[in-house]
Amino acid sequence: MKCLKTAELFDLSHSRAGSYLANTVYPFEILKSISDIIMELGATLSSDEYEQRGDNVWVAKDAKIAPTAYIGGPCIIDHGTEVRHCAFIRGSALIGEGCVIGNSTELKNVIIFDNVQVPHYNYVGDSVLGYKSHMGAGSITSNVKSDKSLVVIKAGDDKIETGLKKVGAFLGDNVEIGCGSVLNPGTVIGRGASVYPLSSVRGTVPSGGIYKKQGEIAQRV
Predict the structure, then answer these.
(1) pTM for the whole thing?
(2) What CATH class has 2-219?
(3) What percentage of the chain reaches a pLDDT higher than 90?
(4) Is position 134 annotated as part of the catalytic site?
(5) Which residue, of 38, 134, 154, 190, is most buried by count of CB atoms within 10 Å of its CB?
């Protein structure tokens, strides 16, 4: 179970939500609170550095926002982040510093750590993406099971009942997801792991792992 824990996946100094995540054992525990966390943090932001764009939307003045992007609240977009053409930020999105939210990428109920890239046609919902993680073009998080049952997070024979219908994926720091991949509900990718393009991933990929296909995970040496 250790590989699933918040402290094993993330350097919490790289997110405004770090102190909130520090109070969790597993990162899925934060999903119900993201909206409230954003509104609490937003109220503390300096008007010298951030402008408020509508209800509960705070954007750093040095962020680059395409005029065609949609930003729904509650949302914080931090310093140096770029939001590109036709990005769709539906709300409950806490986006860190130096990130890239790409063309036609959709975000909903997420914590995005600093220097994360979701640059091309990605969907990320009910998920947490760690520091410097990157999702290749067209890769997505699937956040609802086909039978609509509650999501269970699995690591080998270990199982954690989330009690939630909507749970996406949890990417540790410096994770690389290949183009066109689907991360099924409750997927956990450990720090420094990578996933081959066109993969369908479920369960857990350990830190430093290389996911080639279901049942075949190599380990970096």
Answers:
(1) 0.96
(2) mainly beta
(3) 91
(4) no
(5) 38
